[in-house]
Amino acid sequence: MIYEKIDHENKARILCYTVRAWKQMPHFHREYEIVCMLTGEVNILYRGRIHTIHRNDIFIVESNELHDVFSNDPTNAILVLQIKPDFFTIFCPILSDMHLSRHFLLDPEEAIHQKLRHCIVKIIECYRESSPSRSFHLIQIGCEILILLIKHFRLDYPKNSQNTKSDDLNVRLSRMLKYIDDHANGKVTLQEIADREAVSLNYLSSFFHVRMGMTFQEYVTRLRLRNAVFMIVNTDKNLTTISSECGFSDPRYLKRAFEAEYGKSLSEFLESRHDPADGLPDPLSIGSNNPVSISADEILQLLKSNLQQSEKE
Amino acid sequence: MGIELVSYTEKPSIQCFAVMVNYSMAHYHNDFEILYVIKGSIIVEYKNKVNTLRTHDIFIIERNVVHAMRKTNEDNLLLTLQFNVSGFSEISPDFLRMRLKRHLFMPDSSIQYAALKIFFQRMLDNYEQPAMIRPLINMQLICDICILFSEKLDHSILSEKDYACEERNNILLSELLNYIDQNYHHAFTLGGFGCLRGYSLHYLSCFFKKSMGITFSRYLSSVRTNRAEYLITHTEKSMLEISIECGFSNISYFNKAFYEDYGCMPSEYLNTSKSEKMYLSTQEPVSESQCIITDIHKIKQCLQNPNN
Q1: Cα distance between residue B255 and residue B246, in whole Å
Q2: Is A144 exposed, middle or buried (0-12, 13-18, 19+ CB in 10 A)?
Q3: How far apart are CA B102 and CA A120, in angstroms?
Q4: N or C: which terminus of chain B carries fewer CB neighbours within 10 A?
Q5: Which residues in chain A are closer than 8 Å to B151, comparing Cβ atoms?
Q6: In this complex, is the C-beta atom of A145 within 8 Å of any C-beta atom belonging to chain B?
Q7: CB atoms within 10 A of CB A90
């Protein structure tokens, strides 16, 4: 069985699922995210740097931090735990403005690493048992995780420091991404956005590059390509229609972009689509979460390996 | 004063305080309360049933259930754990419709009693935790209590229909109690409220008795003596002034009603022991009357050492 993405408005505000990272778009969201590698390795773009994490490593994403998870390793499987902050900030306001000192936990023997994994194990067991008081159990464990984060990693920033500024910039970035998303099927230029934001073209170009780890043009192309691949897989439209609907002025550009991104030509891909020999996930799932079939038992086993038994507090 | 209708807030919270109860008139609120008798004994009227709690007994008061407390012939000290779950309505709608079958827990070797008692200890420990994580630890405690209620305590789940009906009745009752609270100081009748809201006197009087467990006139008299108690302890007013201000038509009614609730004449009241509420942390609101800060360690010892 797989851990389906559980509806966000589900009662507990705590979400746990497995995915296989392949190609994603850099994105950010308000949820805290704890990424735990189950198998294989993935690359993570975080704060302008690319990190490679392996089995058992844990990566923590702060609220509203831009990140991207991508991999060429067809065997990778990651477990993602998302904690929606809204419910918790109502009674614990410091969470709304929390910054952490560490984001990568690479030593599975480290106490905090063990404790976090232990919490994740409890969450999975909790989902599996489906008791009527599950929501309370989940909140309980959510609190435990947040307490661990506060105790071990919380940074004491003086108020009015760069935080508020960086929040403003996040708002600007999300406004930009939204604008690009809405206009990617037509013409979208950085100059237009610079005019809307009332900043210079140069500033915005480097702002985008620093924050997103790629240039504006690269991002737009990737986004268009993602939309196009989705349509190729899911509709019967011909390539010319698709490329124009996705904002490519010529199907040749679409083909070129595809080859650059996936390392083989579009026609090769279309032929081999029904032949899963290469083991790569279908690009259908690019950008969306790609559930992996791992049984709960397997996940638990992976998480529990070299987890010390003495975790009962 | 009088009714402690805790406002519907979306913010879950939990607090603990020690209280010495002399007389607490029938009231209800949106919070759950778990009582632990540290010292002496106390009478709790709950759902038209009179329970006598002895030392170390634990009693659960569910949200929106009318309850009243009065002292026995010995002094008492209660530890109260009060928490609300109003923010949980989305998270676990079933929980709000849950009704416990048993409320009184006497000291025995059952897991229920042990678990309930541990909540008090945990709450007291929580006060000593860093302020930054305290809200989260408190939330864990609330969750654990809810888990115990739904997994280990006997209960039934109200149907949606019954629950909606109960909610409607609660609203009517709280409006009625508010109305009494604003008008007790002059002569007024239940019929007056009925005319205002289009209910018959008969319906309202049955509704009141059923909801509150006491008759309307008995309740009204309690509201008045309760206010009088406050004026006696907080002002220098004469008994005559107080009796007029509280809506008693003459002083002998006042004396009689007060004696019924507080076991002594109003003029003797200042010399007897009073209800006291002690908050266990300096961070708690100090607005409450007769609020004193007490030593957490002492209470903890009482919990750990039943014979102390």
Answers
A1: 12
A2: buried
A3: 35
A4: C
A5: 131-133
A6: no
A7: 17
The phi, psi pair for B132, rounded to 5°, reads -65, -40
**Do residues A67 and A19 touch, judged by C-beta distance below 8 A?**
no
Structure tokens at B271: 């010399």
C-alpha span between A10 and A134 (Å, rounded): 11
Whether A265 and A214 have beta carbons less than 8 Å apart is answered as no
Say whether residue B161 is in contact with chain A using an 8 A CB cutoff.
no
Q: Residues of chain B whose pLDDT is less than 50? A: 1-9, 281-293, 308
Nearest-angstrom CA–CA distance, A152 and A107: 15
Q: Mapped to the 3 state alphabet, what secondary structure does chain A carry?
A: CCCCCCCCCCCCCEEEEEECCCCCCCECCCCEEEEEEEECCEEEEECCEEEEECCCCEEEECCCCCEEEECCCCCCEEEEEEECHHHHHHHCHHHHHCCECCCEECCCCCHHHHHHHHHHHHHHHHHHHCCCCHHHHHHHHHHHHHHHHHHHHECCCCCCCHHHHHHHHHHHHHHHHHHHHHHCCCCCCHHHHHHHHCCCHHHHHHHHHHHHCCCHHHHHHHHHHHHHHHHHHHCCCCHHHHHHHCCCCCHHHHHHHHHHHHCCCHHHHHHHCCCHHHCCCCHHHCCCCCECCCCHHHHHHHHHCCCCCCCCC
Across the beta sheet with A42-46, the strand order is: A49-53, A42-46, A67-70
Distance CA B187, CA B247 (A): 6
The dihedrals phi and psi of B139, each to the nearest 5 degrees, come to -65, -40
Q: What is the DSSP letter of B288?
A: S
Tell me the residue type at B210: K
**B 118-137 → A contacts, CB under 8 A:** 132-133, 135-137
The secondary element (H helix, E strand) that includes residue B112 is helix B111-126
Predicted TM-score (pTM) of this structure: 0.77
Average pLDDT of span A55-65 = 88
CB B184 within 8 A of CB B231: no
Q: How many CB atoms lie within 10 A of CB B164?
A: 12
Predicted local distance difference test score (pLDDT) of residue A34: 93
- Residue from the list A91, A146, A147 with its beta carbon closest to the beta carbon of B12: A91
Contact status, residue B204 vs residue B193, Cβ threshold 8 Å: yes
Q: Is the dihedral of CA A197, A201, A206, A208 positive or negative?
A: positive
Residue A122, chain B, CB below 8 Å: the answer is: no
Give the phi and the psi of residue A70 in degrees, each rounded to 5. Answer: -145, 160
State chain A's mean pLDDT as an integer.
79
Structure confidence by residue, pLDDT tens digits, A275-303: 444 444 444 343 344 555 667 777 788 77
Q: What is the dihedral of CA A16, A17, A22, A25, to 10 degrees?
A: -50
ipTM exceeding 0.90, yes/no: no
> What's the first-to-final CA gap in chain B, in angstroms?
35
Distance to chain B for A87, nearest Cα, Å: 9
